[in-house]
Design brief:
Blueprint lengths: L6 H16 L3 H8 L11 H21 L13 H11 L2 H8 L5 H6 L7 H12 L14 E3 L3 E7 L7 H12 L4 E4 L9 H9 L15 E3 L13 H9 L6 E4 L3 E5 L19 H13 L4 E5 L9 H6 L1 H14 L6 E4 L5 E4 L7 E5 L26 E4 L14 E8 L2 E8 L9 E2 L1
Parallel strand pairs: 1-5, 2-3, 3-4, 6-7, 7-8, 8-10
Antiparallel strand pairs: 2-12, 5-6, 9-10, 9-11, 12-13, 13-14
Helix pairs in contact: 1-3, 1-7, 2-7, 4-7, 9-10
Length: 435
């Protein structure tokens, strides 16, 4: 029934939509012409059709090149594919009811030419892909908040999946006494309106009014939120949590926690010369560090600045270069630690090989295979990936085929911080760290 969990049905639906647009199918063109919100609106029909088919062809090619998940859910790294998954996932039962027959959904998607259901679904996904990007919000003093001298901060990453794994972690964070909860980004499949609404509804830290506790509930921007170009992250999510912008700071006399946006412009904090939109964030970060030279700085972001895997290590190059710029701009060993997600793994990197304590906690809800320990890889320039000391290889109770989900719990006590890595079954991953 859950077509949106599988790779082949998504590709088939996109191919079916492409075929209909190529043949100038009446229902496909009618859906395309009814659009009033995307950047295609107002263009000649043939121009809209050509741009739509071009986007689809690129998405299909990318999706086909992605690895086929074995025993777990497919989450595409292609924006249009992710949006298509969201469009199917939001109302699978109603789509099936409209068909009014007993053919299984897979065959309905593959074999039945049902223009009432599948063609509009595919075309509407394309139109969402062409809608304008949300404006970036600039933080003010409202985004400077106090970190209590003694408190517990739970960090969840890649958690916005509305599944049993996410719910277990949320419940654990509350049961372990989290005073503040921060999500490091990714609401699946594409940060659509319904997915962002569900994310806020599922938020674990809630007050007596049933709403997320403002000032203690935070969510960073992720690449999946930007598949919908941030339209619902910057409205539904930020408004729902009472959060002003996609970056903020929590600080006391000893520590500064910097929540940062690396997704609005992928793998960037705003330090690059052409990163004009994010420059306010960059200036904010540099200013906060320079104004408080005696405090330890912990960075929180969605994207990884380093990686133990060659492809992901290469992708993180721009963010790594900005870190070097940050070192220069602050004239200090600016960063004490950096927590991040994006990769659906949990890795403790080797502190002796990095400029900061680097911790990947991206296994917050998405079913994935257990991580394998491998030697550091090198690319053709002999640049090596980042060495690590531990990876989470534990599996959950789903037959031993799916890796377990994890979150980090930071317990602050004045100048001390204790870090625990807690699996969804309550067991610890790695040793408790005392910083």
């Amino acid at each position: 029934m859950f077509l949106f969990h599988k790779k082949d049905p998504i590709i088939h639906l996109m191919q079916h939509t492409l075929d209909k647009l190529n043949s100038s199918d009446a229902v496909a063109l009618q859906t395309l012409d009814a659009d009033t919100e995307s950047t295609l609106a107002g263009l000649p029909q043939e121009t809209k059709r050509q741009q739509a088919t071009s986007a689809l062809r690129s998405a299909i090619a990318f999706a086909k090149s992605e690895p086929e998940p074995q025993g777990h859910i497919f989450h595409s790294r292609d924006p249009l594919t992710g949006i298509t998954q969201s469009h199917i996932a939001v109302k699978p039962e109603s789509l099936i009811d409209q068909l009014q027959d007993n053919v299984i959904p897979e065959l309905q998607a593959f074999g039945q030419d049902n223009p009432i259901v599948w063609i509009p679904t595919g075309v509407l996904a394309i139109l969402d892909h062409f809608k304008p990007k949300a404006p970036f919000k600039i933080a003010t003093d409202k985004s400077r908040l106090i970190l209590p001298d003694t408190c517990k901060v739970a960090l969840l990453a890649d958690w916005g999946a509305d599944n049993i794994h996410a719910k277990r972690l949320g419940e654990l964070a509350i049961s372990r006494g989290a005073d503040i909860i921060i999500h490091l980004g990714d609401i699946y499949y594409s940060g659509s309106q319904s997915e962002c609404e569900t994310f806020v509804k599922n938020w674990p830290l809630r007050g007596s009014d049933g709403k997320p506790v403002v000032g203690k509930s935070f969510a960073l921007n992720g690449n999946h939120e930007m598949y919908s170009l941030g339209r619902y992250y910057f409205t539904t999510v930020l408004d729902g949590l009472g959060q002003e912008a996609s970056y903020f700071i929590l600080s006391n006399n000893w520590w500064q926690l910097h929540g940062l946006d690396t997704a609005y412009e992928a793998f960037s904090l705003g330090g690059a010369p052409n990163s004009t939109t994010l420059k306010p964030q960059w200036d904010w970060l540099v200013g906060n560090i320079n104004s408080n030279p005696g405090k330890k700085n912990i960075l929180l972001s969605h994207h990884q600045p380093i990686s133990a895997h060659l492809t992901e290590f290469g992708q993180s190059y721009p963010l790594r270069q900005e870190f070097y710029q940050l070192q220069s701009a602050t004239q200090t060993r600016a960063i004490f630690a950096w927590f991040f997600g994006h990769e659906h793994r949990c890795t403790i990197y080797d502190d002796s090989k990095t400029y900061f304590k680097a911790r990947l906690i991206g296994n917050g809800s998405i079913p994935h295979l257990p991580q394998e320990e491998t030697a550091a890889e090198k690319d053709n320039t002999l640049t090596s990936t980042t060495p690590f000391v531990a990876v989470n290889k534990a599996t959950d109770d789903e037959g031993g085929t799916v890796a377990i989900s994890t979150f980090a719990l930071l317990s602050f006590d004045k100048d001390k911080c204790t870090v625990e890595y807690i699996n969804e079954d309550g067991s610890p991953f790695y040793q408790t760290e005392n910083w």
